[in-house]
Write a structure and sequence with these properties.
Strand 2, helix 2 and strand 3 form a beta-alpha-beta unit. Helix 7 runs parallel beside helix 9. The chain has 260 residues and is α/β, with parallel strands linked by helices. The chain has an 8-stranded mixed sheet, sandwiched between helices. The chain is globular and about 40 Å long. It has one domain: Spore Coat Polysaccharide Biosynthesis Protein SpsA, Chain A, CATH 3.90.550.
């Protein structure tokens, strides 16, 4: 058997679903270009009325038509040529250790998907509690041999993604939780808690925090049981533009690899 360190590193294609993300996308694209050389960055844009698509093209991204997040990710993946698909939301940040983990974990042929602990940028106590509860929930499911996660940062082996025909577009909300459940039947889904991806808690800023937490729990349970119903429809939201600037200041001081 070959030593994994002697094998060529797999090519990673990044897919980002967007809709009016001009305030967050530049931060992520700069972040990606500063830490690694990816095979390609594909932005699947859902009819943005701002500069999102122009920003993506200016830095060399391929822009394709999007839709709801699951549809957009499928459309981006359809044109991706990498062996590994890294799906990122526009409001997240990763660091070089995340990329190192991806390349290391996928030397194991049994691994079909990988996701990371998510840590909110500059959030209050209740939001931090929600994210900590989510971490505990995913880790518990993983120990029980069940797979579930969220879409901020999902890493999927391309051939496994195509084998299950990608995201189920009949699932309007929680398509991320659904695909992890289905991938878990195909092979190993690894949940990495030792390293964290930074993410904006921006949805908590425009919705009732408690209501959002309860909705998310409902979708998680529905997807875990294999049900496609959503009960509450999904829609792309518009966020206060000043929030991105405040988060940028906080994120410069935060280390995504911190375990706290």
């Amino acid at each position: 058997m070959k030593n994994p360190s002697t094998l060529a590193a797999p090519q990673v294609s990044v897919v980002i679903p967007t809709c009016n993300e001009e305030n967050w996308l530049p931060r992520l694209l700069h972040n990606l270009q500063s830490i690694a050389r990816f095979r390609e960055i594909i932005v699947a844009d859902h009819d943005s009325r701002d500069r999102t698509a122009d920003i993506a093209r200016q830095v060399g991204c391929r822009v394709v038509p999007g839709g709801r997040p699951g549809i957009a990710r499928n459309r981006g993946a359809a044109v991706a040529s990498g062996e590994i698909l890294l799906f990122l939301d526009a409001d997240v940040l990763i660091d070089a250790t995340i990329v190192e983990s991806i390349l290391d974990v996928f030397t194991d042929p049994e691994v079909v998907a990988l996701h990371f602990r998510i840590r909110p940028i500059g959030a209050g106590r209740f939001v931090r509690l929600c994210f900590a509860s989510m971490t505990f929930y995913f880790a518990l499911l993983s120990r029980l041999g069940l797979s579930q996660g969220i879409g901020g940062c999902m890493v999927i082996r391309a051939r496994s993604f195509r084998q299950i025909q990608g995201f189920d577009e009949d699932v309007e909300v929680g398509e991320d939780a659904d695909i992890f459940r289905r991938l878990g039947k195909l092979g190993r889904v690894k949940y990495e808690t030792g390293r964290a991806v930074l993410a904006s808690p921006r949805r908590f800023a425009i919705e009732s925090p408690l209501g959002l937490a309860l909705k998310t729990m409902m979708w998680a349970v529905l997807r875990l049981t294999g049900r496609k119903k959503s009960l509450i429809s999904y829609k792309w939201e518009k966020y206060p533009p000043g929030l991105a600037g405040r988060e940028a200041q906080v994120s410069r001081r935060e280390d995504p690899t911190r375990t706290g």
